[in-house]
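If you are new to this repository, start here. Below is one unmodified record pulled from the training split, so you can see the exact layout before writing a loader.
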Amino acid sequence: MFVLCLLLTLPSLAAPSKVKSQTKNLTAREILSLPESQRLNVAEKGKDQVYGELIELSKSAKESMVTRWKALTLAAKVKKHQAIPDLKEALQAPEWFLRNAALLSLQEISPLKARPAAEKLLQDRALVVRSAAVDVLAEQMDNDVRQFFWSEFQEKRNFRLKTGLWIRAQILSRLSQAPQKQEANHFIEALKEKDQTLYPSAIVALEKISRKKMGMSSTPLSQKRNLWIKWAQNSQNSTVN
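And here is the target side for that same chain:
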């Protein structure tokens, strides 16, 4: 009886070791099929082999966009700084999602190395990539970045049929977080545009610069906009006089 009980318990005792062994030998493709919360831990157990497989998957045109994205971002997490050469190569990829994934991964590993890449990708042909570049550069906001942002705010590539794309509101929102006094006219000019998505950030910036508020909290956005434009005109007239 004792022997029978022992035999019945042996498989359950051996199971964890077997599962652990199987987990170590998972291919990159199998790892990518796991829940996101498990992928990194499993990949790190065989990272030398898995990393190469992940990079190969990310470069394969036969794979789906989702698979290639997940492969590249996981590879970066597995090797960290050692993945930088492959990430720099991916920044030049023809596929926008690889450029995007490479930039975001580089930002996690080395913000300093991500900055020059983001400056270049501000001019990328893909709007999503330009948007990611804005987010990366905003984390290192200084006078140079502010100049980049104001320049991009007016760039033709950020308009379509004379209508501003949503990245302009994103840029203005970042600039409004710590606006500089000499930028007041830029924010006023944003209020003069037809694009209403610019108004909230422009008003927030002007409130910070002037330490004033126009209207009440219940005042419609369009009225606040008009009040600020009028305030700017009055300020200009008083300066001239």
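Two things worth knowing about this chain: Residues 43-140 form a domain with the Leucine-rich Repeat Variant fold (CATH 1.25.10.10). The first strand starts at residue 159 and ends at 160.
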